[in-house]
Amino acid sequence: PEPVTALPAPADLPAGPLNEAESKALFGHFGVPATREYVVADAEGAVAAARQLGGKVVLKVLSRHIAHKSDVGGVRVGLTVEDLPAACADMLERLRQAGAPVPEGFLVGELARAEVEMILGFHRDPQLGPAVLLGLGGVTAELFEDTTLRLLPIGRADAEAMVGELRAAKLLAGYRGAPPCDVTALVDAVLAFARMAETLGGRLVEAEINPLFVGRTGEGVRAVDGLAVLG
Ligand code: ADP
Ligand code: MG
């Protein structure tokens, strides 16, 4: 299998939701890196991909029609090569039972880890216009509702201020002896989303990375999930 790196020119992308691999390739094109991963058709491909990656992997359903993969049993984290054939069969069965559409394939990715998990989003407010959203992501996100929004255009100082006004700023700075996170890379990611919105103009309807894994200083950020909708 081939790693997911290439993307057709944005102008050649069709309207509608992109699948996770296409969305991450789009975000990568504008400078937000993603976890290493492969698109495969079946269990055999998944095994080959896991061998390439080495170590434990993540198995996900690949479908532009499934926005919340976990809800339909479409995400398994921490699998070995040996686990994959049964995990693929099991996932297809769970998708069928959930009434989900027939998937385009599977994504097999490296198991990543984060110091802090964030959400990075783009949406169009019907009254106010295009905006970028940044917040605390992951399982704790709904609990704390720690997000901030800026209407575009924004510059580096705005993106830095967005990070600074989150309660999560303390976590990112290294809370209670935890190592400080790569805030520069996080700010770069916010600016990459702003640039993407500017470049794609009205074609970009919506975009979200949840979670965006933030590493320690110097480790950068990684898009672990991705969803873009084009018009
Ligand atoms: P969903 O469509 O349900 O949002 P995600 O792709 O966000 O699916 O995966 C669900 C969760 O699984 C993530 O929030 C993250 O905690 C974990 N996860 C997904 N991919 C990886 C990965 N490559 N490494 C580690 N954890 C992952
Ligand atoms: Mg997600």
Topology, element by element:
Blueprint: E1 16-17, H1 20-29, E2 37-40, H2 43-53, E3 57-62, E4 75-79, H3 84-97, E5 105-110, E6 116-125, E7 129-136, H4 141-144, E8 147-151, H5 156-165, H6 169-174, H7 183-200, E9 204-214, E10 221-223, E11 227-230
Antiparallel strand pairs: 1-11, 2-5, 3-4, 3-5, 6-7, 6-9, 7-8, 9-10, 9-11
Bound molecules: adenosine-5'-diphosphate (ADP) and magnesium ion.
The site of adenosine-5'-diphosphate (ADP) has 15 residues, from strand 3 and strand 4.
Q: What does this entry look like structurally?
A:
The chain is α+β, with helices and mostly antiparallel strands and 231 residues long. It has two domains: 10-17 and 24-33 and 113-230, D-amino Acid Aminotransferase, Chain A, domain 1 (2-Layer Sandwich), CATH 3.30.470; 36-110, 2-Layer Sandwich (Dna Ligase, domain 1). It has seven helices and eleven strands. The chain has helices spanning 20-29, 43-53, 84-97, 141-144, 156-165, 169-174, 183-200, and strands spanning 16-17, 37-40, 57-62, 75-79, 105-110, 116-125, 129-136, 147-151, 204-214, 221-223, 227-230. The strands form two sheets. Strands 1, 6, 7, 8, 9, 10 and 11 form a seven-stranded antiparallel sheet that branches. A hairpin with a 3-residue loop joins strand 6 (116-125) and strand 7. Helix 5 packs across helix 7 (183-200). The radius of gyration is 18 Å and the shape is globular. The structure holds adenosine-5'-diphosphate and magnesium ion. Magnesium ion (MG) binds next to loops.
